[in-house]
Specification:
By secondary structure, this protein is mainly beta. The chain is built from five helices and 34 strands. The protein is globular. The N terminus is likely disordered.
Length: 602
């Protein structure tokens, strides 16, 4: 979470449509009382209360998650907890490790785990009671989790501004090493402390704070190279200046315009405050420091397509990571409605990027009735590859559509995609706004298809809580609840997400999962996947009923024959495929799934 919102100026993005200007006050989520909950298309099947966790204190906030095997690892400002989720409806604690430092965001790779430390009180030895120049840990901890019931710290990579988030980056061409892109967003380390730089351990390195310094500690990320078989030898190999001016080399090259003064972002009046001079400006009349992109809050990487998306305070950045050790900035965008570019997600085929805006830093109520739908929202961009470099093209905003109370901290936060074949479906956390399922297959028209929400923790005072992250992993949605604990949800079949689509999603089983270190989902050919695509064709409605009935009958016959007579099954599938119009995008996907199944049966 950001300590404060940095705000941006850009005139290139159109506002949301008028009917979506403000959240609904009639949605059932808008009137929930403490202790109440409401859901649609999601069912809470397990809740592990924070009072039973190893870190029950009011300041021990649960943070982000990662998954490995039958385990979920939940970060906490005071350490991390490993849950056994082999029975998702009955999660149990495998081990809790006390190691304060915040945020302790987690990434996993094989037998290695990486956690972020930014607080000045974090110590190398994980002992409580404060730190000094000799034992302070601010950076990335590396753990050996080969015995997951007994994690062992093997290294601490020290950095000038600690580690707010760390992102695991795999190199498809080098399985012997992985990389960590480290983002430090907090205050400067004392100049008396040694830090690890590409040149070695340096005393005084962190005194360099000005953009005109020879090597300033801002306007860059650290790239850490980790030998998989010898993680203790990990080191910072590069301080990448991703904001540098392409002509002058100035490290603070992404200037986002002068401080804005008295210029409303829209002519549409705010019905809650129609006389306000800046009724549609997220932060009032004066915002957008110049420059304001000093680091990235988070970077989402997708090695299989060679791209990353950086959410970098004042900018969204598209990055070439085909060589993870030497990334290249491809494009950058800004948005006058975005306060703090926080995180990003690609869709599965890498054609769309969703950036989130953590307006208010996550600790404030930013989903109340008089907050416009462009503020604290998601922004969807497609990737235009027609030119010499890929470009980000804005498509739309999406925000939680239900108004929340004025004591519920709420804003866009961590999300990841579900492996639904043929569609882009995501589950996203909104702090005390709960979780929402949304379909962004058409990035110009994202829509909610499910949700879960609770009433305010405290109706009279804002208490930091709600979902930090909600992630799909091997058939269920897991939620890291900052103040309440750890949740498990089942996604239910609805008209918007059918039983066949969910069954196809559950065929994708991962050995490990880091939501923002993406790996491409792949579906083995099956009748389950074919039926998921058939449901999508039916939902689309551009096929005649008798033709769809014929296709269904032929697929049924093929499945009946598949275990006895493969040739007959293939013949039935071929007949079904011949009924389809491949100029129709949904029928083309079904056709491809049928052809893949025919090849598999052959």
């Amino acid at each position: 979470m950001a300590a404060a919102a940095a705000l941006v100026l850009s005139m290139g993005v159109a506002p949301a449509t008028a009917q979506d200007d403000y959240p609904s006050t009639t949605d059932p989520r808008a009137s929930l009382q403490p202790g109440e909950s409401v859901s649609s298309g999601m069912n809470l099947v397990a809740h592990f209360p924070k009072s039973q966790q190893a870190f029950p204190g009011s300041g021990s906030y649960n943070s982000d998650m990662a998954f490995t095997g039958n385990h979920a690892i939940q970060g906490n400002y005071d350490g991390f907890t490993v849950y056994d989720i082999s029975d998702p409806k009955n999660p149990t604690i495998e081990v809790s490790v006390f190691c304060p430092g915040s945020q302790n965001d987690v990434n996993v790779y094989g037998n290695l785990m990486f956690t972020s430390v930014e607080a000045t009180g974090g110590r190398v030895d994980c002992v409580a009671g404060g730190a000094n120049a000799q034992n302070r840990a601010r950076g990335v901890r590396i753990w050996d989790i080969s015995d997951i019931s007994n994690p062992q710290q093997v290294a601490v990579i020290q950095t000038c501004r600690g580690s707010h988030t760390n992102r695991l980056v795999e190199d498809p061409n080098d399985p012997d090493h992985v990389y960590i892109y480290n983002s430090g967003t907090s205050g400067q380390r004392s100049a008396s402390e040694y830090v690890h730089t590409p040149e070695g351990y340096v005393n005084g390195r962190c005194q360099q704070t000005s953009a005109t310094s020879p090597n300033p500690s801002q306007w860059m990320i650290e790239i850490i190279k980790v030998p998989v078989k010898n993680p203790a030898a990990a080191s910072v190999i590069k301080e990448w200046r991703l904001f540098a001016d392409e002509e002058t080399g100035a490290p603070n090259g992404l200037q986002n315009g002068p401080t804005r003064s008295g210029h409303p972002c829209s002519t549409t009046p705010n019905p809650f405050n129609p006389s306000a001079a800046n009724s549609c400006s997220p932060a009032g009349s004066n915002y957008s420091p110049s420059p304001n992109s000093t680091t990235c809050h988070d970077i989402t990487v997708y090695p299989e397509i060679g791209l990353a998306a950086g959410a970098c305070q004042g900018n969204g950045i598209l990055i070439d990571i085909s060589n993870p050790a030497d990334p290249v900035r491809l494009d950058h965008v800004a948005d006058e409605n975005f306060a703090y570019w926080h995180s990003a997600n690609f869709n599965n085929d890498g054609t769309t990027v969703m950036f989130t805006d953590e307006w208010g830093g996550g600790s404030g109520p930013r989903c109340v009735a008089n907050h416009r739908m462009e503020w604290g929202a998601n922004a969807f961009f497609t990737i235009d590859r027609s030119g010499p470099k890929p470009k980000l093209e804005f498509q739309s905003y999406y925000k939680l559509p239900a108004a929340q109370g004025n004591t519920e901290n709420c804003v866009a936060h961590q999300a990841n995609i579900l492996p639904v074949p043929g569609r882009d479906v995501m589950v996203q956390a909104w702090y005390q706004g709960g979780a929402t399922l949304l379909d962004f297959t058409d990035p110009a028209n994202p829509r909610e298809i499910g949700y879960f929400d609770r009433g305010a923790i405290n109706p009279t005072a804002t208490v930091l809580g709600g979902y930090w992250s909600t992630y799909w992993y091997n058939g269920n949605v897991y939620g890291s609840e900052i103040n309440r604990g750890f949740d498990v949800h089942e996604v239910l079949a609805t008209a918007d997400l059918t039983a066949n689509e969910l069954a196809a999603a559950k065929t994708v089983q991962l050995a490990e999962h880091n939501a923002m270190s993406m790996r491409q989902y792949e579906w083995a050919p099956s009748f389950t996947v074919v039926r998921a695509h058939m449901d999508q064709v039916a939902r689309d409605g551009d096929i005649k009923a008798n033709k769809l009935a014929n296709v269904t009958k032929m697929v049924d016959k093929a499945e009946d024959a598949s275990g006895k007579n493969a040739k007959n099954a293939i013949a039935q599938l071929r007949a079904a495929s011949n009924q389809l119009d491949t100029n129709d995008p949904w029928q083309a996907k079904l056709h491809a799934a049928i052809v893949a199944l025919m090849a598999d049966l052959a």
